[in-house]
Amino acid sequence: MTKEQAGRLMKMATWAAVGVASTLVAAKAMAWWLSGSVAMLGSLADSSLDLAASLVTMFAVRLALIPPDDDHRFGHGKAEALAGLFQAAVMTGSAVYISLEAVSRIWEPVMPERSDLVIGASALAVLLSLCLVLFQSYVVRQTRSIAIAGDHLHYKGDLLLNSSVIASALISSTGFLYADGIFGVLIGGYILYGAYEVAKPAIDMLMDKEFEDEEREIIFNVVMGHPEVQGLHELKTRSSGRDRFIQMHIEVPGEMTVDAAHIIADEVEATLSEYFRDTEIFIHMDPPSPQSDALTVRELMREEDA
After folding, report:
1. CA distances to 20, 231, 236, 267, 280 from 248, in Å
2. Model's pTM, two decimal places?
């Protein structure tokens, strides 16, 4: 899939998310207003957050897809990570508010009204969220977008969250009034956990976290598998949105011409590109030195210890 195709998919996913979130906010707001259910309030707050997060994601995706320019030579991909941090911050605040409201409802339980509206709105949310999650899952697999992945986590959680609201309404209607508050606490906890799941990869990207150990091992094996490469050191990797970067120093025979050494670097880069598509690879060529073996072993030991 080309970058242009991936970009179109990402934009479609943001529009779909905004459309679903807007519909659910309207339906849940009416259901909460008429029923007074704190579980529905929690679900409404979650959908409102989803709408806010989806709007931020829409902006972030469009910014991240802007090609590199003179001021941003590595592109704008980290806009996705910034959107993820915003999502996590808002989710955390909402989780605390919902939990406090739920605890007060446990302390002073109230029979929710119009359980039929609560169940109807939640059933609609389950159906729309399921359709959106399936589409977002496809987009994430094709694009590796961290912003779309964060939105995907929200709506994937909505399937469980809205099912919990339905269960709360059904149980409360039997006379167990504490169910509304208990499910509200559970929903608050789930949103807080979701905030952590969104924030972690965003922080990793902003902090230029290395590729996963398995991927770094592939890089090492591919490079050292070339018959003319005598050493590898200073292997560094990072991600910026969909864009990924690999840089390294390889050691080639010192008597080689610059052209011959350049051909080796091109061959290594071509092989790595088969494993890491849409990745910029920077290779610096060094002649062997008395420290060559030690540097290569140190890099190897790092891969084994990781």
Report:
1. 45, 11, 6, 14, 12
2. 0.72
